[in-house]
Amino acid sequence: MEAAVAHLDQAIECLQEEVLTLRRQGIRAGAIESYPRGGRTYYNHTYYEAGRPIRRYLPLKQKAQAEAEIQRGQQVERLEAAIVLLEQARASLTSP
Question: Which residues, in sequence order, are CB contacts of 26 under 8 Å at separation 6+?
Answer without folding.
Answer: 68, 69, 72
